Amino acid sequence: MDDAQALFADAPFVAAERDALARLGHELSRITVRGMGSDELDRVLSDLDAVYVASGSTFALLEALQTTGNGEVLTGHVRAGLPYVGVSAGAMVAGPDLTPASLMDDPADGPALTTFDGLGLVDQVVIPHADGLLPPYPRELIERTLDTFGTDYTLLALRDDQAFLAQSGRGRVVDSAPLPRN
């Protein structure tokens, strides 16, 4: 799912993310839920082995899922066993509430949002980029996010070499594997 990347279509990380998945031998089907009906998404998800929810703007992704009703469709498939792999924004949206993301991403990216409720696939709120190595997410920002929201939310700090896998109501951190050499 690439709704989180709509604001960053030409950013180098978008192509790098897709290229990395392709080098691992995965067949990719790009899905943009904004503008897609629930019945269509239901059919598309029924044909997949897993759904990979990309990085980008957390609030743009949440807005696309909420305003289309496709968050419920996606949640239904994951609860029925479809593996959900989320990276960055995709990992955060899997949790119960995106309020902690407000220090890391701009809530104005989702102007139609009426709530920051996530998909609720897992109980934790994932805080990506926890190693503080990416310039937009320095260690100080990660620490401030953890300090500000750590008493009100169950937070899970996720490094940049990790992804979050939610399946059948359970979540786990997945470490990256080395990419095959070309």
Task: Give a verbal description of the structure.
With 182 residues, the chain is α/β, with parallel strands linked by helices. Helix content is 32%, strand content 13%. It has six helices and six strands, in the order H-H-E-H-H-E-H-E-H-E-E-E. It has helices spanning 12-23, 38-46, 58-68, 70-79, 89-93, 139-149, and strands spanning 51-53, 84-86, 125-127, 155-157, 162-167, 170-175. A four-stranded mixed beta sheet has the order 1-2-5-6. Helix 2 packs parallel to helix 4 (70-79). The longest helix has 12 residues, at 12-23. It is globular, with a radius of gyration of 15 Å. The model has no long low-confidence stretch (mean pLDDT 87).
Defining key terms:
alpha/beta, 6 strands, 182 residues, two-stranded parallel ribbon, 6 helices
Strand-helix topology:
Layout: H1 12-23, H2 38-46, E1 51-53, H3 58-68, H4 70-79, E2 84-86, H5 89-93, E3 125-127, H6 139-149, E4 155-157, E5 162-167, E6 170-175
Parallel strand pairs: 1-2, 3-4
Antiparallel strand pairs: 2-5, 5-6
Give a short synopsis of this structure:
This protein is α/β, with parallel strands linked by helices and 182 residues long. Helix content is 32%, strand content 13%. The strands form 2 sheets. The chain has a 4-stranded mixed β-sheet with strand order 1-2-5-6.
